[in-house]
Amino acid sequence: STAVKPIREALRLPAGSQVTVRGWVYRRRDLGDKAFVVVRDSTGIIQAVFTPESPGHALARKVTVESSVIVGGALREDPRAPGGKEIAGRNIEIVGLAENFPIRRDASREFLLEVRHLAVRSRKMTAVLKLRSTVFEALHEWFRSNGFYEVHCPMFISAAVEGGATLFPVKYVDGSTVYLTQSSQFYLEALIYSLEKVYTVAPSFRAEKSRTRRHLTEFWHAEAEVAWTGLEGILKVEEELVSHIVRRVLEKNREELELLGRNLEPLKNVEPPFPRISYDKAIEILQGKGLNVKWGDDLGADEERALTEEFDKPFFLYGFPVGVKAFYHKNDPSRPEVTLSADLLAPEGYGEIIGGGERIEKLEELLDKIKQFGLNPSDYEWYLDLRRYGTVPHAGFGLGMDRLVTWIAGLDHIVDSIPFPRTVTRTYP
Ligand code: ATP
Ligand code: MG
Ligand code: MG
Ligand code: MG
């Protein structure tokens, strides 16, 4: 028999070639005395047709959907078949006969999440996962070709970064209580003193209590920290990184984007510079749209969605009030009621995908702000040390990888951006 070929490659061979493919039965039906078996592998799908004369005919009739199979035969043109060619089936080997597959076409979203270990085989999920893989690849590619070092930070931590309300406590080996990390930022800040430009990609954990379309309890967080720079410098990093990632997806995942029904026009528009809007202006616009917000409020998904109507590409929202951003953000010296911070919002209704800004580098300023926020400086001893030994101006950001994938793939819920989502109501499978 011939060597096994990926389906995508098999479809490129000339009609008449003998081919062997392997994969899983995607569809199965009989038409008259012919048995049709559509086989799927990671590269595509192909149809094999077995006539009663073919040695594999009886097995082809018996095989069930999602069984694993090896199929051989001669390739022939068929304009009606997916890919324009099909296999005149000769033999079929059933490697694992599948029981009655529980997923039907009309399955509910909740049921699909309950059987996620099987639902990840769908063509939609496969397309999303390929795109997601490109997003991670492109992120590493960009950082590594721009002088950043990849570093790795702990997941067990002893104090909050983003605030106590979303901390996950864990009983540690010595009986004490520790927490799962919400952000690697403080560790990245420590590492700029040796490496200057650092990044990491790791899970962050947040006990988000409300159900939304954009919050997971465990999400993939890409974070970067850069010494000797400020807000301007870090925004440039963000816009170049994001546009590089989108460009790569457009190059590598056309088929997947098409299968997902993604409109490509907004993605083609993701080139720097990204427009900017101040928080002050945003509040004005939102009030003009009749939303109930006032200066000093944090903005949520609804407000962000309304702002995205003003832009046809990602945009920065800068100058958040001191009260809505964490204590480590530096206040604007020319206007101390606002921080030198900015969020990057994705267009088309998606909203925040990055939060970032300049960090406080002076010890006294940091101590004042910790107290002003009602926090205890002794919980931040090692973080304060970073300002005691050779402090430098620096800035950084956190990018939600799952949110980035959700937007690029044009999905309507973050759970569809990751194979095994963890949410307020789900930790299985
Ligand atoms: P939000 O306002 O949506 O709750 P945040 O401002 O609390 O987000 P940051 O602390 O700024 O989030 O975290 C940096 C980035 O991490 C966010 O811009 C977002 O892309 C991502 N992120 C934060 N929380 C979650 C979550 N629960 N699930 C998925 N991604 C998240
Ligand atoms: Mg949050
Ligand atoms: Mg936010
Ligand atoms: Mg944020």
TrEMBL record:
Residues 129-429 form the Aminoacyl-transfer RNA synthetases class-II family profile domain. One of its GO terms (biological process) is asparaginyl-tRNA aminoacylation. One of its GO terms (molecular function) is asparagine-tRNA ligase activity. Its EC number is 6.1.1.22. Coiled coil: none annotated. Pfam families: tRNA-synt_2, tRNA_anti-codon. The keyword Hydrolase does not apply. Transmembrane segments: none annotated. The keyword Amino-acid biosynthesis does not apply. It is an enzyme of class 6 (ligase). Keywords: Aminoacyl-tRNA synthetase, ATP-binding, Ligase, Nucleotide-binding, Protein biosynthesis. Belongs to the class-II aminoacyl-tRNA synthetase family. PANTHER family: ASPARAGINE--TRNA LIGASE, MITOCHONDRIAL-RELATED, ASPARTYL/LYSYL-TRNA SYNTHETASE. This is Asparagine--tRNA ligase. The lineage of its organism: Archaea, Thermoproteota, Thermoprotei, Thermofilales, Thermofilaceae.
